[in-house]
Amino acid sequence: MNKTRIGIIGLGGVGGFYGGLLAEYYSNDKTIEICFVARGLHYDKIKKEGLEIRQKGISVTVKPHLLVKDISALGKVDYLLLCTKAYDLEVVIEEMKKIITEHTIIIPLLNGVSAYEQLVSEFGINKIWKGCTYMVSRLIEPGVIDNPSGRQKIFFGNNFEPTSQMLWFEFLLKRANINAICTSEIAREVWEKYILVSASATGTTFYNCSIGTLMEKHLEAIRNLVVEATRVARSKGVALSENIEELVIERLKAIPYDSTTSMHSDFIMNKNSTEIEVMTGYMVESAKEAGIELPTYTQMYRTLLASQGYYNG
Length: 313
Hints:
Layout: E1 4-9, H1 13-25, E2 32-37, H2 40-49, E3 51-55, E4 58-62, E5 66-68, E6 79-82, H3 89-96, E7 105-108, H4 114-123, E8 130-135, E9 138-141, E10 144-147, E11 152-157, H5 164-175, E12 180-182, H6 186-207, H7 211-217, H8 219-235, H9 244-253, H10 262-268, H11 276-290, H12 295-306
Parallel strand pairs: 1-2, 1-6, 2-5, 3-10, 6-7, 11-12
Antiparallel strand pairs: 3-4, 8-11, 9-10
Protein backbone atom coordinates (compact mmCIF):
# COMPACT_ATOMS: atom_id res chain seq x y z
CA MET A 1 0.00 0.00 0.00
CA ASN A 2 1.39 3.41 -0.98
CA LYS A 3 1.59 5.89 1.86
CA THR A 4 1.40 9.67 1.68
CA ARG A 5 4.37 10.96 3.67
CA ILE A 6 4.23 14.46 5.14
CA GLY A 7 7.40 15.96 6.60
CA ILE A 8 7.48 18.86 9.08
CA ILE A 9 10.72 20.85 9.16
CA GLY A 10 10.86 23.50 11.90
CA LEU A 11 9.04 22.17 14.95
CA GLY A 12 8.51 25.46 16.74
CA GLY A 13 5.23 27.27 17.36
CA VAL A 14 3.93 26.86 13.81
CA GLY A 15 5.38 23.55 12.68
CA GLY A 16 5.00 21.95 16.10
CA PHE A 17 1.34 22.90 16.40
CA TYR A 18 0.28 21.88 12.91
CA GLY A 19 2.48 18.80 13.04
CA GLY A 20 0.92 17.87 16.36
CA LEU A 21 -2.61 18.11 14.96
CA LEU A 22 -1.62 15.97 11.98
CA ALA A 23 0.12 13.39 14.16
CA GLU A 24 -2.89 13.19 16.47
CA TYR A 25 -5.48 12.66 13.74
CA TYR A 26 -3.47 10.29 11.56
CA SER A 27 -1.85 8.29 14.37
CA ASN A 28 -3.63 5.07 13.38
CA ASP A 29 -3.98 5.77 9.67
CA LYS A 30 -2.14 3.28 7.48
CA THR A 31 -2.17 5.56 4.42
CA ILE A 32 -0.77 8.79 5.94
CA GLU A 33 2.61 9.05 7.63
CA ILE A 34 3.61 12.15 9.62
CA CYS A 35 7.35 12.77 10.05
CA PHE A 36 9.05 15.33 12.33
CA VAL A 37 12.53 16.82 12.30
CA ALA A 38 13.63 18.01 15.75
CA ARG A 39 16.96 18.56 17.50
CA GLY A 40 18.52 18.91 20.93
CA LEU A 41 16.33 18.84 24.03
CA HIS A 42 13.24 19.18 21.85
CA TYR A 43 14.07 15.91 20.10
CA ASP A 44 14.91 14.18 23.40
CA LYS A 45 11.60 15.19 25.01
CA ILE A 46 9.50 14.16 22.01
CA LYS A 47 11.36 10.87 21.66
CA LYS A 48 10.82 10.04 25.32
CA GLU A 49 7.39 11.48 26.10
CA GLY A 50 5.87 12.78 22.87
CA LEU A 51 4.99 16.28 21.71
CA GLU A 52 2.48 18.13 23.89
CA ILE A 53 0.25 20.63 22.12
CA ARG A 54 -1.98 22.98 24.09
CA GLN A 55 -4.90 25.07 22.92
CA LYS A 56 -7.63 26.83 24.87
CA GLY A 57 -6.61 25.05 28.06
CA ILE A 58 -6.77 21.58 26.49
CA SER A 59 -3.62 19.49 26.17
CA VAL A 60 -2.86 16.41 24.08
CA THR A 61 0.40 14.51 23.69
CA VAL A 62 1.24 12.92 20.36
CA LYS A 63 4.01 11.02 18.66
CA PRO A 64 4.75 11.13 14.92
CA HIS A 65 5.22 8.02 12.80
CA LEU A 66 8.86 9.07 12.39
CA LEU A 67 11.07 11.40 14.45
CA VAL A 68 14.55 12.25 13.16
CA LYS A 69 17.34 14.71 13.98
CA ASP A 70 18.51 15.32 10.43
CA ILE A 71 16.48 16.26 7.37
CA SER A 72 18.30 13.66 5.27
CA ALA A 73 16.93 10.93 7.59
CA LEU A 74 13.34 11.80 6.63
CA GLY A 75 13.64 9.85 3.41
CA LYS A 76 11.48 10.73 0.43
CA VAL A 77 8.37 12.76 1.26
CA ASP A 78 5.32 13.74 -0.75
CA TYR A 79 4.59 17.00 1.08
CA LEU A 80 6.92 19.16 3.12
CA LEU A 81 5.63 21.81 5.51
CA LEU A 82 8.58 24.17 5.89
CA CYS A 83 8.32 26.14 9.14
CA THR A 84 11.90 27.12 9.96
CA LYS A 85 13.19 30.62 10.65
CA ALA A 86 13.90 32.46 7.41
CA TYR A 87 17.54 33.05 8.35
CA ASP A 88 18.08 29.27 8.50
CA LEU A 89 16.69 28.70 5.02
CA GLU A 90 19.93 28.50 3.05
CA VAL A 91 21.30 25.70 5.25
CA VAL A 92 17.94 23.91 5.26
CA ILE A 93 17.69 24.05 1.47
CA GLU A 94 21.01 22.25 1.10
CA GLU A 95 19.81 19.48 3.42
CA MET A 96 16.42 19.30 1.66
CA LYS A 97 18.07 18.49 -1.66
CA LYS A 98 18.74 14.97 -0.37
CA ILE A 99 15.04 14.16 0.08
CA ILE A 100 13.23 16.08 -2.65
CA THR A 101 11.89 13.92 -5.47
CA GLU A 102 10.10 14.82 -8.69
CA HIS A 103 6.80 14.34 -6.84
CA THR A 104 7.58 16.37 -3.68
CA ILE A 105 5.53 19.50 -2.97
CA ILE A 106 6.98 22.12 -0.62
CA ILE A 107 4.68 24.52 1.26
CA PRO A 108 6.65 27.28 3.04
CA LEU A 109 4.96 28.80 6.10
CA LEU A 110 7.84 31.14 6.91
CA ASN A 111 7.39 34.82 7.58
CA GLY A 112 7.95 37.03 4.55
CA VAL A 113 7.86 36.43 0.81
CA SER A 114 11.54 35.90 0.02
CA ALA A 115 11.47 32.23 1.08
CA TYR A 116 9.16 31.35 -1.82
CA GLU A 117 11.51 33.09 -4.25
CA GLN A 118 14.54 31.22 -2.85
CA LEU A 119 12.78 27.86 -3.01
CA VAL A 120 11.60 28.40 -6.58
CA SER A 121 15.14 29.30 -7.66
CA GLU A 122 16.43 26.05 -6.15
CA PHE A 123 13.68 23.53 -6.90
CA GLY A 124 11.56 25.05 -9.67
CA ILE A 125 8.14 26.65 -9.59
CA ASN A 126 6.20 23.39 -10.01
CA LYS A 127 7.41 22.03 -6.67
CA ILE A 128 6.48 25.04 -4.54
CA TRP A 129 3.05 26.14 -3.35
CA LYS A 130 2.80 29.57 -1.77
CA GLY A 131 1.62 29.56 1.82
CA CYS A 132 1.11 31.63 4.94
CA THR A 133 -0.43 31.10 8.35
CA TYR A 134 -2.19 33.19 11.00
CA MET A 135 -1.71 32.02 14.56
CA VAL A 136 -0.10 32.95 17.89
CA SER A 137 1.68 29.81 19.02
CA ARG A 138 4.95 29.30 20.88
CA LEU A 139 7.41 26.60 21.78
CA ILE A 140 7.32 27.31 25.53
CA GLU A 141 9.71 24.54 26.55
CA PRO A 142 11.19 21.44 24.91
CA GLY A 143 8.38 19.20 23.74
CA VAL A 144 5.58 21.68 24.52
CA ILE A 145 3.74 23.93 22.04
CA ASP A 146 1.09 26.39 23.26
CA ASN A 147 -1.57 28.14 21.19
CA PRO A 148 -3.60 29.82 23.97
CA SER A 149 -6.50 31.02 21.80
CA GLY A 150 -6.66 27.92 19.63
CA ARG A 151 -7.09 30.16 16.57
CA GLN A 152 -5.15 29.11 13.48
CA LYS A 153 -5.47 29.32 9.72
CA ILE A 154 -3.37 28.23 6.75
CA PHE A 155 -3.71 29.69 3.25
CA PHE A 156 -1.93 27.95 0.38
CA GLY A 157 -2.05 27.59 -3.38
CA ASN A 158 -0.72 29.27 -6.48
CA ASN A 159 -1.93 32.05 -8.74
CA PHE A 160 -4.35 29.85 -10.67
CA GLU A 161 -7.42 27.78 -9.90
CA PRO A 162 -6.69 25.08 -7.30
CA THR A 163 -5.76 21.72 -8.76
CA SER A 164 -7.28 18.43 -7.62
CA GLN A 165 -4.06 17.71 -5.74
CA MET A 166 -4.31 21.01 -3.86
CA LEU A 167 -7.93 20.38 -2.96
CA TRP A 168 -7.07 16.88 -1.74
CA PHE A 169 -4.31 18.28 0.49
CA GLU A 170 -6.73 20.91 1.82
CA PHE A 171 -9.12 18.06 2.73
CA LEU A 172 -6.29 16.13 4.39
CA LEU A 173 -5.44 19.16 6.56
CA LYS A 174 -9.07 19.93 7.41
CA ARG A 175 -9.66 16.39 8.63
CA ALA A 176 -6.92 17.03 11.20
CA ASN A 177 -8.81 20.13 12.45
CA ILE A 178 -6.49 22.52 10.65
CA ASN A 179 -8.29 25.55 9.27
CA ALA A 180 -6.87 25.23 5.74
CA ILE A 181 -7.93 27.31 2.76
CA CYS A 182 -6.69 26.61 -0.75
CA THR A 183 -7.00 29.75 -2.87
CA SER A 184 -6.04 31.19 -6.25
CA GLU A 185 -5.60 34.56 -4.51
CA ILE A 186 -2.65 33.34 -2.49
CA ALA A 187 -0.39 36.23 -3.57
CA ARG A 188 -2.82 38.68 -1.94
CA GLU A 189 -3.07 36.56 1.22
CA VAL A 190 0.70 36.16 1.54
CA TRP A 191 1.42 39.84 0.97
CA GLU A 192 -1.32 41.12 3.29
CA LYS A 193 0.08 38.89 6.02
CA TYR A 194 3.62 40.06 5.17
CA ILE A 195 2.67 43.73 5.37
CA LEU A 196 1.33 43.13 8.88
CA VAL A 197 4.29 41.13 10.18
CA SER A 198 6.93 43.28 8.46
CA ALA A 199 5.53 46.55 9.80
CA SER A 200 4.99 45.16 13.31
CA ALA A 201 8.39 43.46 13.46
CA THR A 202 10.19 46.57 12.28
CA GLY A 203 8.23 48.86 14.62
CA THR A 204 8.45 46.75 17.78
CA THR A 205 12.17 46.20 17.27
CA PHE A 206 12.96 49.84 16.49
CA TYR A 207 11.02 51.16 19.48
CA ASN A 208 11.82 48.14 21.72
CA CYS A 209 8.22 47.71 22.78
CA SER A 210 5.19 45.44 22.66
CA ILE A 211 2.64 45.60 19.86
CA GLY A 212 0.18 47.26 22.24
CA THR A 213 2.66 50.00 23.13
CA LEU A 214 3.51 50.42 19.45
CA MET A 215 -0.14 51.00 18.57
CA GLU A 216 -0.71 53.30 21.54
CA LYS A 217 2.40 55.48 21.42
CA HIS A 218 3.75 55.16 17.87
CA LEU A 219 0.61 54.92 15.75
CA GLU A 220 1.79 57.43 13.13
CA ALA A 221 5.03 55.50 12.61
CA ILE A 222 3.29 52.16 12.23
CA ARG A 223 0.81 53.71 9.79
CA ASN A 224 3.75 55.00 7.74
CA LEU A 225 5.31 51.54 7.68
CA VAL A 226 2.05 49.94 6.56
CA VAL A 227 1.53 52.52 3.79
CA GLU A 228 5.11 52.10 2.58
CA ALA A 229 4.82 48.30 2.59
CA THR A 230 1.68 48.47 0.45
CA ARG A 231 3.62 50.55 -2.10
CA VAL A 232 6.14 47.74 -2.43
CA ALA A 233 3.42 45.11 -2.84
CA ARG A 234 1.62 47.12 -5.52
CA SER A 235 4.91 47.75 -7.34
CA LYS A 236 5.12 43.97 -7.71
CA GLY A 237 1.62 43.79 -9.19
CA VAL A 238 -0.08 42.31 -6.12
CA ALA A 239 -3.84 43.02 -6.05
CA LEU A 240 -4.31 44.00 -2.41
CA SER A 241 -7.64 44.69 -0.72
CA GLU A 242 -8.75 48.27 -1.40
CA ASN A 243 -8.71 49.19 2.29
CA ILE A 244 -5.60 47.18 3.15
CA GLU A 245 -3.99 49.90 5.29
CA GLU A 246 -6.95 50.12 7.65
CA LEU A 247 -7.38 46.33 7.66
CA VAL A 248 -3.80 45.87 8.85
CA ILE A 249 -4.10 48.58 11.50
CA GLU A 250 -7.29 47.02 12.86
CA ARG A 251 -5.70 43.56 12.93
CA LEU A 252 -2.71 44.95 14.84
CA LYS A 253 -5.01 46.64 17.36
CA ALA A 254 -6.70 43.29 17.98
CA ILE A 255 -3.44 41.57 18.99
CA PRO A 256 -3.02 41.19 22.79
CA TYR A 257 -1.32 44.30 24.23
CA ASP A 258 1.80 42.61 25.61
CA SER A 259 2.52 40.53 22.49
CA THR A 260 5.65 41.18 20.52
CA THR A 261 7.31 39.84 17.38
CA SER A 262 9.92 37.13 16.94
CA MET A 263 12.32 39.65 15.39
CA HIS A 264 12.02 41.89 18.44
CA SER A 265 12.55 38.91 20.74
CA ASP A 266 15.71 37.94 18.85
CA PHE A 267 17.09 41.49 19.17
CA ILE A 268 16.38 41.54 22.91
CA MET A 269 18.31 38.28 23.31
CA ASN A 270 21.16 39.65 21.16
CA LYS A 271 20.96 36.69 18.81
CA ASN A 272 23.51 36.60 16.02
CA SER A 273 20.80 35.73 13.52
CA THR A 274 17.57 37.74 13.27
CA GLU A 275 14.82 38.30 10.71
CA ILE A 276 15.86 41.89 9.93
CA GLU A 277 16.73 41.17 6.29
CA VAL A 278 13.47 39.29 5.74
CA MET A 279 11.23 41.76 7.59
CA THR A 280 12.89 45.09 6.88
CA GLY A 281 15.77 44.75 4.44
CA TYR A 282 13.63 43.03 1.79
CA MET A 283 11.25 45.99 1.75
CA VAL A 284 14.08 48.50 1.39
CA GLU A 285 15.81 46.55 -1.39
CA SER A 286 12.55 45.94 -3.26
CA ALA A 287 11.78 49.67 -3.12
CA LYS A 288 15.18 50.49 -4.61
CA GLU A 289 14.57 48.07 -7.46
CA ALA A 290 11.15 49.60 -8.12
CA GLY A 291 12.41 53.19 -7.85
CA ILE A 292 10.14 54.13 -4.96
CA GLU A 293 11.01 55.72 -1.63
CA LEU A 294 10.42 54.24 1.81
CA PRO A 295 11.67 56.88 4.26
CA THR A 296 10.37 55.23 7.43
CA TYR A 297 11.58 51.73 6.57
CA THR A 298 14.94 53.06 5.40
CA GLN A 299 15.57 55.06 8.58
CA MET A 300 14.62 52.18 10.86
CA TYR A 301 16.59 49.66 8.81
CA ARG A 302 19.77 51.74 8.99
CA THR A 303 19.38 52.32 12.73
CA LEU A 304 18.76 48.65 13.47
CA LEU A 305 21.68 47.54 11.31
CA ALA A 306 23.98 49.95 13.15
CA SER A 307 22.86 48.80 16.57
CA GLN A 308 24.46 45.92 18.40
CA GLY A 309 21.39 45.17 20.46
CA TYR A 310 18.12 47.02 20.07
CA TYR A 311 17.03 50.64 19.78
CA ASN A 312 16.09 52.08 23.15
CA GLY A 313 13.88 55.02 22.21
